[in-house]
User: Fold this.
Amino acid sequence: MLLLSVFASMVILISGSAQTMASTSESNLKTQVTSYGQYQPIVGQIFNDRFPILTSHSLLAPNAQVWAVPKPLMPMVPGSPSYQGTWTPIGQPGLGGAVVFGTTVAPYPGASNVDVAWINQSESSLKIYAGTSQPSGSFPNQGYVPPSLQSRLVAAFEGGFQFQVAGGGFYQNGVTAIALRNGAASMVQYQNGTIDIGSWGTEVNLTPQVYAVRQNLTLLVDNGQITPQTNVNPLVTWGYSLGNLVSTWRSGVGVTSHGNLVWVGGPGLSPYMLAKVLIWAGAVRAMQLDINPDWVNFAGYRYQPGVGAVGQNLSPAMYFPASHYLSPFWRDFVAVFLQ
Assistant:
């Protein structure tokens, strides 16, 4: 009787915690529908996370998704298939489930689908990696994700323009490889493994908590609004593409009002349309990363003992294989790990 009483008290306490989580995060844990696993009632999810010894109980699903998930979104084009805006897990899960989710969306009538990823920064840790030669110099996080970290690797995505045309700088662990520029769109990694996006010198600055900074052009999205620069001489402001096409392969990254990250990449995107999709995904501040088919990439990974991280790109049309983040590569990128 004592054991049953303790168990009942735990259920009441943990159920209350779950309700608080559902009301304060971007997720709705009670109504989520994804392909990650056969999710059980919320009490089972919490018990699975807090008391893994009880996972044999019918309520306690091994694949329970305790951690926050992104809200389902309506397609951008009315009448589009319902899978657009429906999130599915990407990469290696942790004790509380997945930390990265993906979806696709057609941004305008007749457009090809573009890929969208959402990253839970409360349960993950991110690192900005320098390339082997872009920028030049020697850095603690450089070139590739080493085997020692691959068991926690969830995802990786490309950095920005080559630095001679990026209009900004690079900093890591006290070393300024290229001077940081005021007003530049900046992806800032903090010592705690979170990333913020903002305009350098006003929204983000070099503080003791900053571990790395990657700058690229100016912001696409600020204060939840598309910036006027998106329509100003796009080929000059946002980079010359193959064939001088304004609508081409582009990628960008943004931060949501809850502090999570969203990544967008795919074909047929102008700077304005890239910004529009980033806002659709929840970004309140966002920046362009890279353009052209070769340089838009996002990959998810699962770990196989004795093999290492095995990855898959979000789209088979992405040029470089997912494995290119696992061996020395000349350009910078960002990796997402389980904490």
Summary: The two ends are 38 Å apart (CA to CA). Residues 119-338 form one domain.
